[in-house]
Amino acid sequence: MSRPVKVTALFAGLTIALVVVACVSAGTGQFAIPVADVVTSLLHHIGLGPGLADPFAEGTLWQVRFPRVVLGLLVGGVLGVAGALMQGLFGNPLAEPAVVGVSAGAAVGASLSIVAGWTFFGAFTTPALGFVGGLVTTLTVYFLSRSGGRSEVVTLILTGVAVNAVASAVIAFLLFSGDQAAREQIVFWQLGSLASARWPYVGSILPLVVAGVVISLLMARKLDLLTLGERPARHLGVHVERLRATGIVVVALMVSAAVCYSGVIGFVGLIVPHAVRMLTGPGHRVLVPASLLAGAVLLAAADLAARTTFDYADLPIGILTAIVGGPVFFWLLLRTRRRAGGWA
């Protein structure tokens, strides 16, 4: 199968999978709604055909199910794109957004809001501080790693490790100093969940997600040149430091916006780009949009499993992605080493 045909088949398959998973997830729950009714309701809201006769089913779909499904698609897509950017910027398939401290920083901000009991933004207080914490931590890692106007990849990664360690210590202190209710809320937030999804939350992160994805697509050609190495990329006209700074800021904005509502969800940004790269090759003009779709499908499917694994219980989605993601990533590493010898 030629590469164009393979790429077309991949995008078609991911698009179909996204629609199917979204519809099934919207219809699944303690109050089951047939997929046909889900589709009917969707068509009605875009002006095609009558709505559902059952107002309770209609309310369940649009007030509870669809906000959660859409938020899951956005968060998964963001994590997939951010992972592809990080791996391209660092030239390392093990890179992910957590490397630069965005998840740990968001956890610090959210935990501080929970322990202090701040409510100055109402229901948006904890997500807002999570967003600010992730953004500030990422920018701190970047500026601390700079020397002589440049940031070395190894220095940046090691700085990220150090800042992540400090953030973990701060979270541990907040857990120690908070009351029982605050501790439970912090632990649940760190495990990741989409249970709190609401349309206002979706609307607040959508502009950042769209802007981040568009900028990522515009960076694709330069990321392809960067894979040749920093020196060849500079000779070909790429301002490596500016590209890296832009990419890190984009990742910080997108991922901070995503995890401030969902909590910490691991392995999606690590596994998705790596798996897509094995199917399509390293070209970022295909890798970035494919990672967007694959990340959305993966997280929507994981959330569906998290909601249905136990009766009357919502399994934290971060547990599920870690349990499944760890062995899958190890298998991908072994398969890549056998067939291609590594990153290239």
From TrEMBL:
<feature type="transmembrane region" description="Helical">
    <location>
        <begin position="156"/>
        <end position="178"/>
    </location>
</feature>
<feature type="transmembrane region" description="Helical">
    <location>
        <begin position="98"/>
        <end position="121"/>
    </location>
</feature>
<keyword id="KW-0813">Transport</keyword>
<keyword id="KW-0472">Membrane</keyword>
<keyword id="KW-1003">Cell membrane</keyword>
<keyword id="KW-1133">Transmembrane helix</keyword>
<dbReference type="InterPro" id="IPR000522">
    <property type="entry name" value="ABC_transptr_permease_BtuC"/>
</dbReference>
<feature type="transmembrane region" description="Helical">
    <location>
        <begin position="127"/>
        <end position="144"/>
    </location>
</feature>
<dbReference type="Pfam" id="PF01032">
    <property type="entry name" value="FecCD"/>
</dbReference>
<feature type="transmembrane region" description="Helical">
    <location>
        <begin position="66"/>
        <end position="86"/>
    </location>
</feature>
<dbReference type="GO" id="GO:0033214">
    <property type="term" value="P:siderophore-iron import into cell"/>
</dbReference>
<dbReference type="GO" id="GO:0005886">
    <property type="term" value="C:plasma membrane"/>
</dbReference>
<dbReference type="GO" id="GO:0022857">
    <property type="term" value="F:transmembrane transporter activity"/>
</dbReference>
<feature type="transmembrane region" description="Helical">
    <location>
        <begin position="313"/>
        <end position="334"/>
    </location>
</feature>
<feature type="transmembrane region" description="Helical">
    <location>
        <begin position="248"/>
        <end position="274"/>
    </location>
</feature>
<dbReference type="InterPro" id="IPR037294">
    <property type="entry name" value="ABC_BtuC-like"/>
</dbReference>
<protein>
    <submittedName>
        <fullName>Iron ABC transporter permease</fullName>
    </submittedName>
</protein>
<comment type="similarity">
    <text>Belongs to the binding-protein-dependent transport system permease family. FecCD subfamily.</text>
</comment>
<feature type="transmembrane region" description="Helical">
    <location>
        <begin position="198"/>
        <end position="220"/>
    </location>
</feature>
<keyword id="KW-0812">Transmembrane</keyword>
